[in-house]
Amino acid sequence: MNQDIVKYRLTKDEKERFEENGYLSVPNTLPEEMVHRLTDIIDNHYEDALEKGETKSNMSYNKTAFISLDPLFLELVDWPVIFPKIGDILGWNIYLYHSQLSVSPPPIENVAGQIQQLPAQKDEKWPWHQDNGQLNEDLRLTPPPRVSIKVAYYLTDMSQPEKGNTYIVPKSHLATAQPAPTDQDNLLEGAIPFCCKSGTAMIFDQRMWHTVTPNYSDITRKVLFLAYGFRWLRPMDKMNTDHFSGLREPVRRQLLDLDVTYHNGISSHYWMTPNDVPLLSWFKEHPDKNPKI
Fold this sequence. Notes:
The protein is of the alpha+beta class. The chain has one domain: Sandwich (Jelly Rolls). The protein has eight helices and 13 strands. The strands form four sheets. A six-stranded antiparallel beta sheet has the order 1-9-6-11-3-2. A three-stranded antiparallel beta sheet has the order 8-7-10, with no helix packed on it. The longest helix has 20 residues, at 32-51. InterPro entries: Phytyl_CoA_dOase-like. Its cofactor is Fe(2+).
C-alpha cells in the first residue's frame, strides 16, 4: 500500500465522534478530477442500462458488485484517505463484502412539454433499515455488535435536502430498538439529512438506522457504496473477482478475498496465518497511536 496513507489514520477526535454518533463525514475525500472520472464511468454504465431496459429514466438504479465494472473502481477499495480509517475501526482481518452503485434521477415525467413530479414517488414510504438484514436479528443481542462498516462516496453535490439525501439517525447504532416514528411522514425520531459537497465520504456503522429518500431536485444523485466486514462475514453480492487474479498487491488481494487457503481442512476465513492476512503486517509496522474503539 501507499505509505502516504499513514497520515490519514483515524484521529482521536474522529474515533470519539464515530463511536458516539455512528458515522463520520470526511470532506474532500475525492479530488475533483477523480469525481469527474468516476461520474463519466457511471454515466456510461447508466446509459447502457437504460438502452438495455434494465431501468427507466425516472427510476432509481442500483447495481451491486460494481467494483468489477471498471479498473478505476478498484482504486476505491483501498483509497488512501479512507481505508486507514476503516482499518483503525475494524482491524486487519477484513475484506470488501459488498459494493453498490446508486443512481437516483429526479422522479419526473415530461407531459406535453411540461416537467411534472410523479405523485407516486411523493407518497413512497422510506425504507428505514440497518445494514446486513437478518444478521442483526439472529445475533439476539441489543444492541448487536459491530461486524461491518460502509463507506458512501458522494459524487453529486448534496449540500441541500431533497436531493435524494441519505437520512440518518445519529447514535442509533447503540439503540436497543428502531427509533420511534414522529408526526412527520417517514421521519424517525432524531433523523437528519446527510448533506455534503461532492467528493465527500461518509463512513457509518452497519447498526445505524438510515434510509435513501426521493430526489425532488433537478439533478441526478450518484453515490458509490463500499462495505467492509470481517473475513468470516459472507459476501452480500455475487462478486466476480476472477479477472483480478493477476493482482500483485497483497492487501488488495486480501480485500478482494482472492487467496482463501485451508489449514488442516479449515478455511483461512476462520483460522489464519500471517500470510493469509497481509494487512496484519502493515498494522504491525504502523501501530495505531490512539486507543482502540
